[in-house]
Amino acid sequence: MYPNRYLVPAAMIAAALTFTAGKTLAESHSASVDTTAEAPADVEFADGKVVFRAALDDAPLVFEHRTEQTLTPQVEEFHTTGVNPYSGDADAIEAGGKSYKKLCQSCHLKDGAGRIGPSLNDNNWERDRTHTEVGRFEIIYGGGAGAMQAFGQRADQDDILKIMAFIDTLRLEK
Amino acid sequence: MFKLIATCTTAMLLGTTVLAQEAPMTVDQVARPGGTIPGNPEIQLVQVASGFLDPTNVANAGDGSGRIFVTERAGRIKIVDKDGNVQEDPFLDLTAINPLGSDVQTGFVEQGLYSVAFDPKYSENGHFYVHYASLPFNGDGMIVRFTVDPASPDVVSPERTNETAKVIMRIEQPWYNHNGGQIEFGPDGMLYIGSGDGGWEGDPYEAGQDLTTRLGKILRIDVNTEDAPYKIPADNPYAGASSERLMQLFGITEEQFSQIKTRSLPEIWSYGVRNPYEFSFDPKSGDMYIADVGQNHWEEIIYEKAGDGGHNYGWPRMEAAFCHPMIGDPAESECSIVGTLPAAMYPHNTAFPGAPEDTTSAGCSVQGFGVANYGGMDGVYLAGDWCSGRVFGLASDAAGWQFQELMQTGMQFTAGGYDEEDNVLIVNANNFYLADQGPDTNPPGSLWRVMAASDVPEGATLAKQAK
Fold first, then answer.
1. End-to-end distance of chain A based on CA atoms, in angstroms?
2. Which residues form the Cytochrome c domain (chain A) (predicted)?
3. Which of B131, B142, B159, B220 is the most buried (most CB within 10 A)?
């Protein structure tokens, strides 16, 4: 059917995360790894809640997917603090790893090195906000460009937070 | 020469310097992102309908009904009416015609129902044609004609499907990828078929340059016959290539010798393509554009003047305008161009092995949409990218081909087509290239119409795009 390659260049769908036209990896944001309390410095708050933004156009993120899902206390906390409560939680990381294998691994590879999708195991972020947990949540839940779909269609917000906790470990393992 | 002078004279009389559209002669003439197409049009993608499971293509019947037909990968065709309503019962359901299960192989994401084409005389004969990966035939491409029951114009029952099935062609597929897919009637009434190189990577069969295989080709056949699956159009480039003849050894030029291709298949229209999943005819000029999906580094769009068959588009000797395989920066290597160059190309994030990553105007798989002749656009070929969600426009001006990124969306484009008014339509899906879990398991995709931004109706749902 559509894309047609056996092995795609490592950053083939890095384009999928490239919303800032003309931006190269060299220009992209780098940040140190901090999986426990990443300060959401670039994140806005309103009425005590995080203001989430769509990765594609920076418009307010609409929580339109899987509207029947249960918003766990951890999700509620994340919406309030912008910090992932599951970071470093062994059980959550294990659960997130299972979801990662099912939803993410085919494009980003087992170790997060990237193939169809960009690498996740370093600190180079195609979109500035992705250096924060809020930014990573935004792009997973609401999607980026092209093949980086809105995975909020496939996973509950609680699962996404667990996936994020697992992805943190990929950066630490590298 | 006289013809050229006459053309130039006419252009001068008109006060313009319009160059005839033609394939580039040099690599520098191959357009890359960064150009501006005439009129610098501003477009929007307006949602027509949604809820399609892995939509793969879109077409109209040309019968005045205004219906739009969306193919779903699993093997169904859905009807969208004039008002954007999607009929619940499929027009065609290839998952229901075989008592043992579906007739469609969907094991890999490149497999499934690829496309539908309606006979130019559909209003009279009810014939339509589909191309799909056959499950019983291990993924071989089946091109089959069915005939609608006039008493049931919106649903072809499984019984009717089986009763009227006429197999036109089976294209053997050695591997599960690079199956081509598009079938479409040209302005000449012939059925054109996009046939990929058979898969794996690097074209292991050398199919693109092998005139004895249907793989890696654009095929052209005449389906206007009941006596055989199809006829060979007499003006196909190799229509008579295999006919028996006496051998002549003297008084023949080398060029004439080189044209003796006794094993060439008569169905071949052009060759040297890798995976022409989508191609389109300009409704106005009849010219053809082929979105030929590239390998590791470049995507290409081929231009072919109406009726100008016989071209070698290079694969696997060439990847877009560069020699294949790429082993480094093509600017630092020497090689001869093989065949006809594409009109435009765009890179992947790494434009050659070892190149620095650059996501500017990059992508991974070109998906052709169609040619727009409205909304300030005059012969603009539109295509999108599966990975990056970008939409590109290709057109020519006095300076040559221009290739412009028109927008970047959040969509995973699969294909395009036309409605009955020749507006360009687009479908997008939400599936995985690897580890896809089935054509009916993915979040649904949508059908979009390309419109000039100034013509968008109030309240329309628009595709989101990057700022």
1. 35
2. 91-171
3. B131
Decide: A141 and A160 in contact? Cβ < 8 Å.
yes
| Architecture, CATH, for domain B27-241+261-452 | 6 Propeller (2.120)
ipTM of the complex: 0.83
Domains, chain A:
45-170 (1.10.760.10)
Residues 86-145 of A with CB under 8 A from B: 102, 105-107, 116, 126, 143-145
Inter-residue contact B62 to B122 (CB < 8 Å): yes
Q: What is the 3-state secondary structure (H, E, C) of B9-64?
A: HHHHHCCCCCCCCCCCCCHHHCECECCCCCCCCCEEEEEEEEEECCEEEEEECCCC
Give yes or no for a contact between B452 and B43, defined as CB atoms under 8 angstroms apart. yes
For residue B241, the surrounding DSSP H or E stretch is none
d(CA B21, CA B397): 9
Q: How many CB atoms lie within 10 A of CB B407?
A: 18
Strands, sheet with B268-271, edge to edge from the N-terminal-most edge strand: B183-185, B191-195, B217-221, B268-271
Render pLDDT for B324-375 as a digit per residue (tens, 0 to 9): 999 999 989 888 999 999 999 999 999 999 999 888 899 999 999 999 999 9
Per-residue model confidence as pLDDT tens digits over B291-318: 999 999 999 999 999 999 999 999 999 9
Contact B402, B15 (CB under 8 A): no
CA torsion sign, A112 to A114 to A120 to A123?
positive
Distances (CA, A) of B264 to B18, B237, B271, B450: 38, 9, 11, 40
DSSP, collapsed to helix, strand or coil, labels residue B428 as: strand
- The answer to whether A67 contacts chain B (CB < 8 Å) is no
Among chain B residues, the shortest Cα distance to A7 is held by B296
Whole-number Cα distances in Å, B119 to A151, B125, B148: 40, 8, 11
Token pair for B127: 């014939």
Kindly state the tokens that stand for A149.
């779909």
Find out whether B335 and B343 touch, Cβ atoms under 8 Å: no
SS3 for A46? strand
B357, B361, B413, B446, best to mutate vs chain A, most A CBs in 10 Å:
B357
* A26 has a chain B CB within 8 A of its CB: yes
Contacts of B465 in chain A (CB under 8 A): 56-57
Helix (H) or strand (E) holding A133: helix A133-142
| Torsion B232-B233-B236-B238 (CA) sign | positive
Please check whether residue B191 is in contact with residue B166, taking contact to mean a CB–CB distance below 8 angstroms: no
Length of chain A: 174
Could you state, in order of their start, the residue ranges of all structural domains in chain B? 27-241+261-452
- Residue among A16, A107, A7, A5 at smallest CA distance from B275: A5
Find the mean pLDDT for residues B232-258: 95
Which tokens is B164 given?
């009227």
Mutate to test the interface with A, among B113, B203, B359, B408 (most CBs of A within 10 A): B359
Whether B410 and A153 lie within 8 Å, measured CB to CB: no
**Cα A125 vs. chain centroid, distance in angstroms?**
10
Across the range B253-282, mean pLDDT stands at: 96
Q: Which residue of A lies nearest to B430 if distances are taken between CA atoms?
A: A149
Q: Tokens in use for B51? A: 């809820």
Its sign, for the CA torsion B230, B233, B234, B236, is negative
Residue B197 in 3-state DSSP? coil
